[in-house]
Amino acid sequence: MEASYSQSPPTPSSSETLMAALLAVPAAQLPSLARALGADARRLRCRLAFLLLSPPHFARALARLRSMPLPAKAKLLGRVLLRSLLLLLPGLCPEGYGGGSLHHLHLPHPDLDAALLLLAMCDSYSPAASSPSPVDWRAVIVDDVVASALSVSGLGATPWAALAPYVDAAAKCRRFADVVSEDRAAVGGIGKEGEGSRGASYAAVLALPPVAGDGAPCAICREEMAPGPRGVCALRPCGHRFHWHCALRWLARRNTCPCCRAELPSEDPVAETRRLWRAVERMARGG
Ligand SMILES: [Zn+2]
Ligand SMILES: [Zn+2]
Fold it and tell me: How confident is the model over 175-205, as pLDDT tens digits?
C-alpha cells in the first residue's frame, strides 16, 4: 500500500479543482488561512522531528504502525489526508462544510505519531533503490527530512506556498477515497451508492436543531409530528423535519435525508472525504 501511495501521483484534475475553488477565496482571507496552515505544518514537523530525535518514541510509533492490520493503516492514512482537506475548507466556505466533521481533525497522539511515520515512510520510499532489509526507517526518514528542509528553506514567503502541501494532500485524499471505495465495492458489494449505508457523524447529529412539530406526518414513520416544542428535529442542510427518535435511528445507518438525500457529515472518513469533495467541486464550478 505504501508503494501504491507513493507511485500514484494525484491526478491533475483534483489539484486543479481545488485551486479553482481556492481562487474564489477573497484575497483578504488568504493570509489568515495561510497562517493557520503554516502553524499546523510547523506543529506536525516539530512532532516528526521529536520522534526522529527520540529513539524510544520512534520505536513505539513504528511498533504501533507495524501492529496495525492493513485496513487500519488505510483508515489512518485516509484520516490524515482528510485532515488536510478539512483545514483548507474554512477558507473555501466560511460557513463551514467541515462543521460536524471537525472530530476528524483531532487525531489522538499515538495515532498522530503513527500517521506521521506512515506519511514520512510514503514520502521517503523509493521502489527503485534496492534497500537493505530490514530498512532502517529512522535513517531513511532523517535523510529525506533534511533534504526537503534544505530545498524548501525559501518557502512561506507567499500564502500560496503555505497552501501548496495541503492542496497536494487534499488531492491525494480524493484519490485515496476513490481507491478505497472501489475496493469496498469489490470486496463487500458496497458501492458508491452504498456509502449512504454508513452512519452520520455523531457530532453532526447532536448539533441538529430541535424544532416545533406542526402536525405534519413524519416521513419515516408516517405518524403525525404533534405540535409543540419537543420531539422533532430539522435536518441540516435541507431542513426536512422528523421525530427525533426516527431521525436518530435513520442516521445511525445512513448520512442522507430520507426525503431529499441531502448529505450530512459522515462518521466514516472515506464517505466524508467524498462528501466534502463534492462540495469542493460545486465551489470550483462557482455553485
Ligand atoms: Zn417518525
Ligand atoms: Zn431533506
Answer: 888 888 777 777 654 444 444 457 888 888 8
How many angstroms does the Cα of residue 31 sit away from the middle of ligand 1? Answer: 47
Contact 283, 24 (CB under 8 A): yes
Ion ligand 1 residues within 5 Å by Cβ: 218, 220-221, 243, 246
**Ligand with an atom nearest the CA of residue 236:** 2
How far is the centre of ligand 1, averaged over its atoms, from the C-alpha of 210 (Å)? 14
SS (H, E, C) 237-270: CCCCEEEHHHHHHHHHHCCECCCCCCECCECCHH
CA of 235 to the centre of ligand 1 (A): 13
- Candidates 27, 12, 165, 158; CA nearest to 88 is 165
- Rounded Cα distance between 31 and 104, Å, is 24
**CA separation (Å) from 48 to 136, 209, 257?**
16, 41, 41
Q: Are strands 241-243 and 210-213 parallel, antiparallel or unpaired?
A: unpaired
> pLDDT tens-digit profile of 227-243?
876 789 999 888 999 99
Look up residue 276 and give its three cell numbers.
Answer: 466534502
Class level of CATH domain 199-253: alpha beta
SS3 212: strand
How many residues are recorded in the chain? 287
Domain ranges of the chain: 2-195+269-284, 199-253
CA 267 to ligand 2 center in whole angstroms? 19
Instruction: Output the CA 270–ligand 1 centroid distance in Å.
Output: 29
